[in-house]
Amino acid sequence: MNEKDFAELAAGAALHALSADDENRYRRALVEHPEWAAVADVDADSVALLGEGVTPVAPPPGVRAALLAQIARTPQGDTDPHDTDAHDTAGSTPGVASAGGPEEPAVRRPRRWTRLAFALAACLALLVGVGIGAVALNAQLTRPASVVALQEIEAAGDAQQATVELDGGATATAHWSGSVGKAVLVTDGLPETDAGKTYELWFVRGEEPIAAGVFDPEDGAATALLEGEMRAGDAIAVTVEQEGGSPSGQPTTDPVIVIPTA
């Protein structure tokens, strides 16, 4: 058995989906190749993660049947359907002598259904576990662009930041990186705007304001990615504009936040 075949068995073992024969092969391989244990650990941890914090509920009607039907339709071997030689070999009867030659033993083809079963079972777990666990996992997979950009900036070697304190105790912190070319504004305690109004971001390049998107804080907090590429020396400013942003592309009010970056 090679490591690829073992990985197939490890996925099935994590789901408790192996036959008795395959379970014995899996256990023997673990004893003979302890260095492969890490593969099994990854699959076991993945199954545990999918179930963590999720309250089991009954699956929607037909989901289990659809899952099993998909597994049944999956080819059990790795034969290339366009390979003539492979078709000839697959078409021969195992254990029967070919003309003019000795009897050839049956060849055990690697089973590839276990990896598909693992993936489909993971999807099924998310479908039937509609609870805090699935919500948390989905949040990790759909992080806002502003959060991703902030992490990129913080990981950069030239990351910089500057904080200003506003009237009423609110704070605004600009994070930027020249190598990343992005800037993110993080606010805390920022007051809500009046109805029909929004906060608009600006790069101030010399004397020229450049619109960089709008944002609305939630309970005073916001993490807003400035649209467009930041350049060295740009200041970051925020004004209050009509909902959707200034129609003229120019600020119509005095800035409520100005953060120099040079």
Automatic annotation (TrEMBL):
Superkingdom per UniProt: Bacteria
Keyword Repeat assigned: no
Membrane topology recorded in Swiss-Prot or TrEMBL: Single-pass membrane protein
Keyword Cell wall biogenesis/degradation annotated: no
Assigned keywords, A-Z: Cell membrane, Membrane, Transcription, Transcription regulation, Transmembrane, Transmembrane helix
Basic and acidic residues biased stretches: 79-88
PANTHER family: ANTI-SIGMA-K FACTOR RSKA
Name the record gives this protein: Regulator of SigK
